[in-house]
Amino acid sequence: MALCLAIFCDHPATAHIVPPEELHPITESYRRLGFFLQLRPLPSSEVARDVERIAAELEALDAERASAFARAARPLVESLDPATELEPNEQLTARRALFELATRALAAALETQLADARASLADYGAARRSLDLARQLWEAFEVEIRAADPQTFVELGRCWLELSSALGHPGVLGVGVVAPDSAAFAEDADELARYLRINFGEAYRVAEAGTFAPVPRQRSDPERAVELPIRLPPGANLNKQLPRPRQVLNMATRGVDERETTLIALGDMGFDSSFIFGEPARSLALSCNTCHNKSITNPGFFIPGLSSRPGGLDVSSSFFAPHANNGHFDPIDIPDLRGIRFTAPYGRNGRFDSLREFIRNVIVNEFNGPEPDPTLLDGLIAYMLEFDFLPNPLLGADGRLTDAASAAAKAGEEIFNREFEQMGGHSCASCHLPSDHFLDRRRHDIGTVAGAEENSRDGALDTPTLLSSLYTAPYFADGSQPTLRSVNEWFNDHYELGLGETELEQLTAYVETVGSGVDAYEDTLHTLEAELEEFSFFLSTYEFLKQRQHSELIAITFKTIALEIRAHKWDVQDPSQMPTLDHMASLMDAAGEALQQGDWAAVDAGVQEYRRVYAENPQLR
Amino acid sequence: MRLRNSVCALALFALAAGPAPAAEDFRLVFIAYQNPDQLVDNVEPVVEYLEARLGVGVKAYVATDYAAVVEALRGETADAGFMGPLQYVLAHQEAGAYPILGEVYSGSSTYVSRIFVRKDSGIESVEQLKDHSIAFVDPLSSSGYMYPLDVFRQQGLIDHRDDADAFFGRIYFAGGDEQAIRAVYNGFVDAAGIGQYSFTLLRPEERDQMVAIGESRPIPSHCVVVRKGADPELVDGLREALLALNDGPNRNLLEQLYNVDGYVEVDHSTYAGVAELAKEYGFVRE
Hints:
The complex is a heterodimer.
Chain A: H1 2-8, H2 25-37, H3 44-61, H4 63-79, H5 88-119, H6 124-138, H7 142-148, H8 150-166, H9 182-200, H10 250-253, H11 262-272, H12 288-291, E1 292-293, E2 296-297, E3 312-313, E4 332-333, H13 355-366, H14 374-384, H15 407-416, H16 428-431, E5 443-444, E6 461-462, H17 484-494, H18 501-514, H19 528-539, H20 542-547, H21 551-568, H22 578-597, H23 600-615
Helix pairs in contact in A: 2-3, 2-5, 3-4, 3-5, 4-5, 5-6, 5-9, 7-8, 8-9, 11-14, 11-19, 11-21, 13-14, 15-18, 17-18, 19-21, 21-22, 22-23
Chain B: E1 12-14, E2 26-31, H1 36-42, H2 44-54, E3 58-63, H3 66-74, E4 80-83, H4 85-95, E5 98-104, E6 110-111, E7 113-118, E8 133-136, H5 142-154, H6 164-167, E9 170-173, H7 177-185, E10 191-195, H8 204-207, E11 210-215, E12 219-220, E13 223-226, H9 232-243, E14 262-265, H10 272-280
Parallel strand pairs in B: 2-3, 2-4, 8-9, 8-10
Antiparallel strand pairs in B: 1-3, 4-13, 5-13, 5-14, 6-12, 7-10, 7-11
Helix pairs in contact in B: 2-9, 3-4
């Protein structure tokens, strides 16, 4: 029991946090390699890293085979380096060859482990270790086998159970001894080995261009279309941060019930909905809220190959919206959206003056969504315009520190406003205007962006606000600075400002004071009740949407609520409430089906029933 | 995720290289369910804490299976260790070991085993599992075999574990909690008999496909067991030191001790029910 609990059951309130898969290093690198190979541009250094990792791990299992893999794989990896400038068709050929090589190596290693287990049946511990390792390698293939050939997947699954059972058991101090069953083990090991050789052996070829996944060659039903699930690579993290950051919605702070603000509630729903995006974001349940959790940057967000560091993402890659791929790897630090109504222009390089255009671009060109309904866009804007900075008693309305600020911060305020000849006679405050939310709404090239060529003029970035910034690390558009102190050090070094240790500390104290706020995080890990209240806000838009005949937005609302309930219900503190939560999700499913049928009476009834159930279960509020 | 995947080598891995432990050192065996090397790193602060509390050197060892822990207590190469209820009963019977503390999870010092099936299987009761396949964890597992089997015994469906082969169409030992629950989820078998927390090894969306149709009697949780003849003063010190973690300033160390909520005092009577069941099922001698 102990480890189960250690990992998953430590606290029910964190149950919606999806723990990372724990895979054997070879399996992990292989799966990641498959993900990388589909990307354009290819993250070649990461490909090289995972190929070397596979080779190193194989070395421990089968030195000869590992050596052969490395000898064949390294030239392919080198050929995929951007400096080689392969033609597109040559690139594709090299990618396919590399994946085929890795697939065959993995299958062979698995087969070897099965043989080792078989050979050491007299030594339970050794046989178990080999079998467990074989099964861990099997995890590289099983998702694709399941998708492509469900019947064989089940048959092979039983083989693994037979193998495990056939190992027997050594007992404890002579009690509970079960002898191994060599014949049974041999039979199932042979069947698995045969399957591996046929499907992932020397004859294995990538099924189709661009699909770097081990789809078996022979299937029970060859006519059956293969639909592979959309997956992120091992190491990806879409979980939101805990404790949850405190969102400050201006109207809510003023005591307004979101159910009274239809457009804002609609935007709230859209912000939380993956259904406004296209594939693959939709299948991955990725929404605006995934990256901007309750408007606040999600510092842990990470996708290998698409992020250079946690809290960042290349939003112009081939993965989420191939049509809008800009062809180069340029991940950006996820911006914080607090106070967004004061922070135009938008985008790290300030390329959108209008929030409407910015949001539309995110939906359509960053996450492959359909052209958004104008009402939905109105809603998203209305909702986002409510995002406030954290209140900060250490700052006056004019942006100057109040008397409550520390002496160090006050000394830092002077430095912040000091004009430096090295910065063209400007001060920090020249761009981060204290009287105007610590920004100037302009773009400047301060030397943090590598240009496309020498003397190019493509490195200007929008001045970011410093308000509430204490909680949005890392910093700079690429997230390259881990702390506000390191940002100050960068400026000190880059512009040779000559600030000593004391002044650096004072300047940092000032910036941290400006960036601070009251109650930055919620004081509970329990999120279900707050989420359910939010879903009631979402549903409050129903009558408005029905009146305006926005069936598509109603459908999105129902689907979003159902999906979100199912994602968050594991947070429930009282397990007896689980059936009620299931019922509420089912009501949304049923209302969505009725909507498709045009049965408005049933839709109305479903909505009313949902509201009744929610109202009559105060434990959920 | 590999959970108690296997009963591996019977070897103990010394935590720290160097000279053999001094005679007065207290020797504690941790069980590694997953990554022994990682556990070695994790328990270092626990060892430091215990040394400060006990006033003697503490040598920690990592074992990869319960048999090694029991063997170490019997052979007096260790003074205390962590183990499951059935393993404790065996250690008590074979070596006179005794428990001093039980683990607390989610506010409870007991847990249960459950019989899980897929919701879409049409199976609604354990009676309906007659002639169906079932996956257990391990033939010597409390929550992954003995207690789930007892669910069928309580229902009058079997009298003894030897009857199980006749009742079920096929019994598998999956080798781990996750393997067992996934075997049901994936449709390899019709049911799995496993500890309640194994369910959470599934991803949230997968859990929705599953339902429990039977539940065992409460199982006392895993325990800290000391060998017969261990220094009573050090045993008391160990008990007090671990109990002090429940509310004290070093509570964070519980994260390194299998992330328990805390400990409660136990004695052999806490595990009397386990012992009785083990006898009835022939796991231990009459």
